[in-house]
Design brief:
Layout lengths: L3 E7 L3 H13 L6 E7 L6 H8 L4 E4 L9
Parallel strand pairs: 1-2, 2-3
Helix pairs in contact: 1-2
Length: about 70
């Protein structure tokens, strides 16, 4: 079990999520960690982009645009 889970909530973020995940790779936490992207039904393909380009990142589909607070 990881000591840290990094949760990134996205919506239509395909143009920004790559830089965000790259910064986490370049500046890896010093503790064992997982990265989770929660996608709010982005029509721009954010979830698929993460799945293809970042196989070590878990992606969860929220099932709709629930917003950041949900």
């Amino acid at each position: 079990m990881s000591r840290l889970t990094i949760v990134i909530v996205t919506y239509n973020s395909v143009s920004q999520i790559g830089a965000c995940l790259a910064s986490l790779t370049a500046n890896r936490p010093t503790v064992e960690h997982d990265t989770l992207v929660v996608d709010n039904a982005s029509p721009d393909g954010t979830a698929d982009f993460v799945r293809r380009g970042w196989p070590g990142v878990r992606v969860t589909d929220a099932g709709g645009n629930l917003g950041f607070a949900a």
